[in-house]
């Protein structure tokens, strides 16, 4: 989790946080989907920005 979110969490506690994010599914001509390996939990996921 980014420092920004951790600092926000310290300020607001467990109240809900609204965040803006975006994601995309990229498919090549062979039907393969682009995935990224997440650094926070080690899982594969679609590319996203937060």
Observed structural traits:
50 residues; two-stranded antiparallel ribbon; elongated; 1 helix; alpha+beta; two-stranded antiparallel sheet
Shape: elongated
**What's the story with the biggest beta sheet?**
2 strands, antiparallel
Helix proportion:
10-25%
The number of helical elements comes to 1
SSE order: HEEEE
Query: What structural class do helix, strand and pairing data support?
Result: alpha+beta
Low-confidence stretches: none
N-to-C CA distance = 11 Å
> Quick check: average pLDDT?
88
Spatial order of the strands forming the largest sheet: 1-4
Proportion of beta-strand residues: 15-25%
Gyration radius, in Å: 15 Å
Topology, number of strands: 4
In short:
Strand 2 (36-37) and strand 3 form a beta hairpin. The chain is built from one helix and four strands, in the order αββββ.
């Amino acid at each position: 989790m980014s420092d920004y979110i951790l600092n926000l969490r310290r300020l607001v506690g467990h109240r809900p946080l609204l965040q803006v994010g975006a994601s995309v599914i990229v498919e090549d001509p062979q039907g393969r989907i682009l995935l990224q390996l997440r650094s926070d939990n080690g899982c594969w996921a679609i590319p996203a920005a937060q």
